[in-house]
Amino acid sequence: MDAASPPIIEFENVTIHRDGTPALRDVSFRIGRGEHTVILGPNGSGKSTLIKALTRELYPRYPERSRVRLWGRETWHLFELRSLLGIVTNDLVNECTRPYSALETALSGFFSSIGIWPNHRVTPEMEQRALEALRFFDLEPLASRPLTGMSSGEVRRAVFARALVHDPQALVLDEPSNSLDVRAQHEVHDAMSRLARSGVTVILVTHHLSDVIPEIQRAILLKEGRIVFDGEKKSALNPERLSALFGVPVRVQQAGGLYHMW
């Protein structure tokens, strides 16, 4: 973490209730610029609640002693924050899977919309930036193709491009390989690695161990709303810790910086 700049994300004593039940319990952590991190946990561990706290859909139960800060600030103007932090969720991917072209989808990131509408003023600079984002993910040849005519991996990369048009410093990726076949998973993992190597801080939130790309070096393990481990990836992703995390005996294999669990 760069000591000269505030953390990208900072949770301080965050407890959040959903339907009267604690979904996050006294959670505290910081993620700094360039600190590629996985937040790993089973379904029901509080991962989606954590993301909703980032997007300000949910707030801490005890605001007098809890803080959620982004770049050291609790309050942001939406358009100001969007230029720093992108968040790609499965809900967003599903919303974007409509008969809009890849280029329209990328451009819509400037307007926080789904597709381009008559009231949107698209400048040549915006179009150039959108094409550059598509090119980054090897999608420029498909710029005119609607997302409904693309493979699942191509759709996911187009939504990544939508988040990248603002040139953010960090991207939060929620279950990026969810419901993807093997080829699409490979495409998305390669895109994530390229993002990390390009200087964008990648924050991965998942229950799939195979999502963890080699560039990620820190792991935060989340179980029943609590952080049960926060440290180096190699100390976290072993059979003992992961068996305790998921509540079943597991085996772990690591090859070439990639992990598999069964």
Descriptive account of the structure:
The protein is of the alpha/beta class. The chain has a domain at 1-78 and 203-262: P-loop containing nucleotide triphosphate hydrolases (Rossmann fold, 3-Layer(aba) Sandwich), CATH 3.40.50.300. It contains nine helices and eleven strands. The protein has helices at residues 47-54, 78-82, 90-96, 102-108, 124-136, 152-164, 182-198, 233-236, 239-246, and strands at residues 9-18, 21-31, 37-40, 67-70, 85-88, 170-174, 201-206, 218-223, 226-232, 252-255, 258-261. The strands form three sheets. Strands 5-6-7-3-8-9 form a six-stranded mixed β-sheet, sandwiched between helices. The chain has a three-stranded antiparallel β-sheet with strand order 2-1-4, with helices on one face. A hairpin with a 2-residue loop joins strand 8 (218-223) and strand 9. Helix 4 crosses helix 5 (124-136), helix 5 (124-136) packs across helix 6 (152-164) and helix 6 (152-164) packs parallel to helix 7 (182-198). The longest helix has 17 residues, at 182-198. The model has no long low-confidence stretch (mean pLDDT 94).
